[in-house]
From TrEMBL:
Residues 209-231 have a biased composition (Acidic residues). This is RWD domain-containing protein 1. Protects DRG2 from proteolytic degradation. Residues 10-114 form the RWD domain. The keyword Acetylation applies. The keyword Phosphoprotein applies. It comes from the Eukaryota. CDD domains: RWD_RWDD1. GO terms for biological process: androgen receptor signaling pathway; cellular response to oxidative stress; cellular response to testosterone stimulus; cytoplasmic translation. Residues 169-188, 209-240 are annotated as: Disordered. Gene3D superfamilies: 6.20.400.10, Ubiquitin Conjugating Enzyme. Keywords: Acetylation, Phosphoprotein.
Length: 240
């Protein structure tokens, strides 16, 4: 008859010696404990970690242990799902044998794979970012390729904008023409214009200066006497 308790105690002692810094006993009845598993460091010292909790059922190892992930560091949801699936597969394959070391070792390998996947994902993300930056740069220098559809769309928009500018200009010119007054309209609007010259003279008073040099003395003017005119005929005057 199998002594399950003896097998469980022996495995616990072995696990404590194998994982001295990460093995923690939670309870003795039922036996439960945790083991923290950390991946190997990647090229950039990245790593992932998880803490596994195990509980022995009464007839372990003929029955699979209960397990769960208490915590995980730098793991995505799909990684957690993959680890749980892996534990289930390993537990089914190792029924009848103490298996905790086997389960932890499988999880350790899985975490190392995840680190490699993280590296691959980061490289792919970097390539994608570089590709997007390159495409954006090409777009900046070369612009959008012109097709018949894009040209017609641009031309329709351009013509509409040009027509709107012309309409505004015509409206402004029309408005400017309406606001410009004729001389008659100015005269009718301001009745002071008809007396502005007189008012100017009155305001000037005696201060208006006349340049007398512009006028000649009457004696200096050479006026011909009618009798000295050879064509002068007084008869014609009498007949008038």
């Amino acid at each position: 008859m199998t002594d399950y308790g003896e097998e469980q105690r022996n495995e616990l002692e072995a696990l404590e010696s194998i994982y001295p810094d990460s093995f923690t006993v939670l309870s003795e009845n039922p036996p439960s404990f945790t083991i923290t598993v950390t991946s190997e460091a990647g090229e950039n010292d990245e790593s992932v970690q998880t803490t596994l909790k195990f509980i022995y059922p009464g007839n372990y190892p003929d029955e699979a242990p209960l397990y769960e992930l208490l915590s995980q560091e730098s793991l995505e949801d799909r990684d957690v799902t993959d680890i749980l699936k892996l534990l289930q597969e390993q537990a089914e394959e190792n029924l009848g044998m103490v298996m905790i070391f086997t389960l932890v070792s499988a999880v350790q390998e899985k975490l190392n794979e995840i680190v490699d996947q993280i590296k691959t994902r980061r490289e792919e993300e970097k390539k994608q970012q570089e590709k997007e930056a390159e495409e954006a740069e090409k777009q900046t220098f070369h612009g959008t390729p012109v097709t018949i559809e894009t040209f017609l769309s641009w031309k329709a928009k351009f013509d509409a904008e040009l027509l709107e500018i012309k309409r505004k200009k015509m409206k402004e010119e029309e408005q400017s023409g309406k606001n410009k007054l004729t001389g008659k309209q100015l005269f009718e609007r301001d009745h002071n214009l008809d007396t502005s010259d007189i008012q100017f003279l009155e305001d000037a008073g005696n201060s208006v200066e006349v340049d007398e040099s512009l006028f000649q003395e009457m004696d200096d003017l050479e006026l011909e006497d009618e009798e000295d005119d050879p064509d002068y005929n007084p008869v014609h005057l009498d007949s008038d």
